[in-house]
Amino acid sequence: MRGDLLTAKALTFRYGDRDVLAGVDLRVGEGEVSVLLGPNGAGKSTLLKIFSGLLRPHVGEVTVLGRSPSSYGRREMAKILSVVGQDPPLDFPMSVEEYVMLGRFPHQGFFDAGTAEDLREVERALAMTELADLGARGLHEISAGERQRATVARAIAQGARVMLLDEPTAYLDIYHRVAFYEIITRLKETCGVSALIASHDLSLCAEYGERIFLMSGGKVKASGTPEEVLTPGNVLAAFGVAVLCDRNPATGAVRVTPQRKA
Amino acid sequence: MKDDRGVSVRLAAAPRRVVSLAPNLTEIVFLLGQEEKLVGVTRYCNYPPRAAALPRIGGIVDPDVERIVAADPDLLLCTTDGNPKERVKILEEMGIPCFAVGPQNLDAIFETIERVGALLGVPEKGRKEAGALRVRADRVSRVQRAPSPRVLFVVSTSPIIAAGNGTFLDELVRTTGGRNAAGGFAGRYPRLSVEDLLVVGPDIILVAAMAGVEEFSPSVSRWSEIPAFRNGDVVTLDGDLVTRPGPRMVTALEKVAEVLSAWRTRHPDVPARTKGETR
Amino acid sequence: MRGRTLVFPLLAAAFVGAAALSLSVGPVQLSLGQVFSAITGGSAGGVSGETAARVVLTLRLPRILLGVLVGGALSSSGVAFQALLRNPLADPYILGVSGGAAVGAMTAKLLLPGDSFLPLPICAFLGAAIAASAVFLLARRRSGISRERLILMGVIIGAFLNALIMMMVALAPPGRIPGAVYWLMGDLSLGTLGRVGMLAPYVAAGVVLLFLLSRGMDLLLLGDEAAFQSGLSVERVKTAVYLTASLLAGTVVAVSGLIGFVGLIVPHGARSIVGSGHRRLLPAAFLLGGTFLIVADVLARTVGPSGELPVGAVTALAGAPFFLYLLRRNGRKP
């Protein structure tokens, strides 16, 4: 069995008097691209924040590489786990290169201004995300899609073993969504970086995800391969939408198509 | 009678209940022997000592309208130099006649004393007192005036704020035969640095002590290039004396004259320097 | 990039130029030769030469040194607060430091009996420290310190302190008020070599500490969550930045009064020269701030026809149009 990267057992998290997570059990293995699939409010972001150590669960147990997230030092944790969230704040001018270089923080000491290795990693990250030409541009000068890629580049430069991605394609058009998932897959294949993607994009995660955790109402309702999880019954229960599930004739992956109301 | 604002104040009879909104005005009323009529003064009115016992109706920039009205005056004496115009207006609109004065030099003070005397129904006394003060002032100005020292009159020692042209303090200096060392600066109260003092080189420094810091800090006073510090000619005067345009301004004049005379005795032949006097 | 290697030597040259200007200019006319001999320890000869040396060394030099320390400290503090609050409009006074220092100084100037100078800086510093601590403690929650709460508490406490100041001015004996008001507007003439010597180690310590935190400040710009997930001990760094920047600002305000605008615009000027990376930004801001304040002080001393102008007035007058220029130059985003 592959090593367990992240596990959660009976995880409960309350916000006010609402159970955002109501007993979550899951296991993410090393070397996989996994997807947390579910509608808004299913608790996906919260789960990611608990894994990264931002939030603490009220009940239950969560481990990262076998230990509780709070048992790690911040830098140590950052070398294991990187997070790709929404756009960077644009209050101050920063170049793409500077921004991606920030990802090297866990590897730097007080006085490291950017060693040769840091520069190499940044270059590599920019190349992987096809931003090599835009390195010197300011963050506010590039498009939203390019900014999202820069955020991924930053996480790549961070060099962690697993990347957590929270609705990363929310504001991207189809071209950039596809490009994004291609990057993730390439990362796994060339660098062995695992990914856990929180998304509600049914079709693309069916195409790219190796393991799907279907969440709704604060629980994991189904987990397994896309074929196992993405059935019309499951999707209807989780999303409240009737769908048709068949195979993509070209790739063989599961294809999910929403049905119009009759 | 017209007051200094140009407003005509007419009284049916001599006033019997007077409120004073400035310490100099209180002193004038006492000088005229009409203190019995005072039913309200500011909290700063402290001279003569009996004035301290009179009922308080607020400050100079913040007189208490309610208290003034409660004192039921038939004349309000105000100064154009500090009393808030809006509140005076309110009181006038309530039917209380306000007589505003703002003398800017000694002659104006004497004149004001005469006018207030007439207003209060004792014109003879007013003329007499003003006359006596005029005599004293004349006596001062006729005293030997050479050599003429450079005098710096400051109202604050940290920062150093000097009395410039057009102030009463400036007039005191000039009337006693001195030259205002701060005369080369624009504005009525220029702020000087130690370097400015070095350039101006005052022979005498007079400090108007106003409940502030009265002494120069040692880092200033140890500059022996400045004659006043070198020779120890730094004199502190009571602030109330020199900042109230009233009868005691003449006393202040006399005191300043004393200081200058004493200086002249000690420095009989200082040449009149012209270098560096103006900027 | 932008001629990286040239920038700091240029800044240093500008600084030296400003210092030289400030040493040579003033009501007492001195020749450049006299200034030079005074600095190098020789004497231009004669009594007036000795006077010249004393003017330069005990009157002008301390002003310059104080200007460097104050201008540099305020600029560094401004950089830190802008990073902490992720707000380009933040300045060192925004979170209680100015109100607290002013209340402390006003207490010393207006209410304490008075002729000793010593209580003033101590009271001002205490006031600043207490106010900044109050803002910090009130803004702290179990979940940490959010910038919204910091700003909110800063505004509330600032308003309260301003009210206190107004009350004190209203109740004070009139003779004391001008001196107090001048302090509020900033004053570099209170510097002596001794005081500069006392101040220097604190400013040095504060600035060095901020420099050590520069990577942390870079990361804070990402936002608290992203910074945390990138490996930063966010709460610790925020606390350290807040305390260091507040104490830096409080210390210099205690000596020189409230000099505004320096901490607000110099960071922006420095950013447009060296970029947002704090490792370069902090030293650049320090140099630029020192230079700026020295020049402002020269203007304050020489431009006013009625003696010295408060240096805070000059920085504000120069600052506002300069800020507008910067905003226009940088296009959409400041």
Description:
The complex is a heterotrimer of chains A (262), B (279) and C (334). Chain A is of the alpha/beta class and 262 residues long. Chain A has a domain at 4-86 and 160-258: 3-Layer(aba) Sandwich (Rossmann fold), CATH 3.40.50. Chain A is 33% helix and 27% strand. Chain A has helices at 44-52, 74-80, 96-101, 116-128, 144-158, 174-191, 202-208, 226-229, 232-239; strands at 4-15, 18-29, 33-37, 59-64, 81-84, 162-166, 194-199, 211-216, 219-224, 243-247, 254-258. In chain A, strands 5-6-7-3-8-9 form a six-stranded mixed sheet, sandwiched between helices. In chain A, strands 2-1-4 form a three-stranded antiparallel sheet, covered by helices on one side. A two-stranded antiparallel ribbon of chain A has the order 10-11. In chain A, strand 1 (4-15) and strand 2 (18-29) form a beta hairpin. In chain A, helix 4 (116-128) crosses helix 5. The model of chain A has no long low-confidence stretch (mean pLDDT 87). Chain B is of the alpha/beta class and 279 residues long. Chain B folds into two domains: 18-139, Nitrogenase molybdenum iron protein domain (Rossmann fold, 3-Layer(aba) Sandwich), CATH 3.40.50.1980; 146-266, Nitrogenase molybdenum iron protein domain (Rossmann fold), CATH 3.40.50.1980. Chain B contains eleven helices and ten strands. In chain B, the strands form two sheets. In chain B, strands 5, 6, 7, 8, 9 and 10 form a six-stranded mixed sheet that branches. In chain B, strands 2-1-3-4 form a four-stranded parallel sheet, sandwiched between helices. Chain B is elongated, with a radius of gyration of 20 Å. The relative contact order of chain B is 0.13. Residues 274-279 of chain B have low confidence and may be disordered. Chain C has 334 residues and is mainly α. Chain C has a single domain (67-329), classed as ABC transporter involved in vitamin B12 uptake, BtuC (Orthogonal Bundle). Chain C has 14 helices and two strands. In chain C, helix 3 (46-84) runs antiparallel to helix 11 and helix 4 (97-111) runs antiparallel to helix 5 (119-139). The model of chain C has no long low-confidence stretch (mean pLDDT 85). The chains are: A alpha/beta (262), B alpha/beta (279), C mainly alpha (334). The interface between A and C is medium-sized, with 33 and 28 residues.
